[in-house]
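Researcher: Next sequence.
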Amino acid sequence: MPRKSAKRSILLVPILLAGCGGSGNSSPASFRSLTSKFPSPGAIAVSADGSTITGIGYYNPLSINTTGTAWQAGVEFSPWTASETTFRSGIAVNADGTVIVGTGLAPVSGLSTGIVAYRWDPVNGGVVIPMPESTVSAWANGVDGSGDIVVGTEYSATDSKSKGFRYDHGAVTILPTLGTEPYWFANAVSADGTTTVGLAGAHAVKWIGTDAPTSLSSDAQEASALDTSREGSTTVGYAATSVGGLRFACRWTATGYESLGTLPGRTQSVAIAVSDDGNVIVGNAYNVDSDPTTKEPFIWTPNDGLRPLREILTGGRYAAYQKLTYIEVKDISKDGRTIVGVAYDQPTDHYSSFSVRLPASATLGD
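Model: Next structure:
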C-alpha cells in the first residue's frame, strides 16, 4: 500500500474532566458519553494518559466492515484521509496517541478484498503491515508504548493455521507456538515492548521477544491472556477450571495465578485490561457471553478487590451510567485512570461510547 501523498499531523490534548483533578483524593469518578457523527460508535482503546481514544464508527461485534473513528479530549476526529477508507477500525493506540493500529479491508494474496493489519501515524498515514505471501487475513491487536512494535494474528492459506506475529521496526516475525499447539494468537504487548501475551491452544502464554512462549496456565485450565502491564510483570485474562467450564477473570504475577472471581448475580467474568503498574484491572462479569444484557463492568484493585464499576460513580454521573441498558468495558489507560467502553440502547438498537475518568488511585484503595 503506497504512502498517502498528503501528510497530516494531530494535536494531542489531555482530557481533564470536572471533578477529576490529580491532586485531591476526594474527587469522584466522572462519566462522559462520547458524541459522534456516527449513529453507533464503539470506543475500543485509550492512550496511556487517557487523552486519545480510538474505535469504530459503526460498532458491530460480529463485523469488521466499518469505519474507524477517534476522540481527543472528548472531541471526535478522524485521523484517516479519504484515501485510507479501507482502514476501518482503531483496535489499539500507543502511549501518546500518535500511533493507531487495527484491522481493515484491502487487496491481499491475490484476493480483491482481504482482512489486513495496519499501522497508522501522522507522518506515514495508514500502512498495511507486510505479512508472509501465504497470509490471507491478519489482525493487529496491540502496540507498545513507542508505537514501533505491533502484535497480532495472521491466518495462512498454506497450513490453514492462525499464528501470532510481532512487527518490530518494519520487520515481521511469526511467533513460535507452545509445543505442538496447532493455533496461537498474540493479543497484546507490554508498553516497553519486551513481552507479548496471548494464547496457544487452550493455554494462556507469554513471549519474551520472539523466543518460544511459556505457559501461564496449568494443563487443567482453559485460559487466555488479554493484556499485560508495562514490563510484563502482571498479565490479565481469564481461566476456566476445565475446557468449556465457567470462566473467571484472573491475573498472573511473579507469585503465580490468582482468580479474581466474579460479581454477585453473575456466573463468569473476564479481565480485559490492566494499568502499567498492575494495580488497576477492568473487565466484564456476565452469565452468558453471547447475551450482552447480562454483562456488568467491574474494576479490581489490590485493596478493594472486585467490585462493580458503577460503585465508583455518584450523583448525576451514576444516573447517566444507569440509563445505559448494556455496558461493556473495552480498555483502561496505562496510568490507570481512564476507562472506555461501549453501551447499547435497546429502543434505538444503536451502540454508544463512553469514558470514565477515575480519581487519584488512593481513593480507589491502593
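Model: The chain has one helix and 28 strands. The two ends are 47 Å apart (CA to CA).
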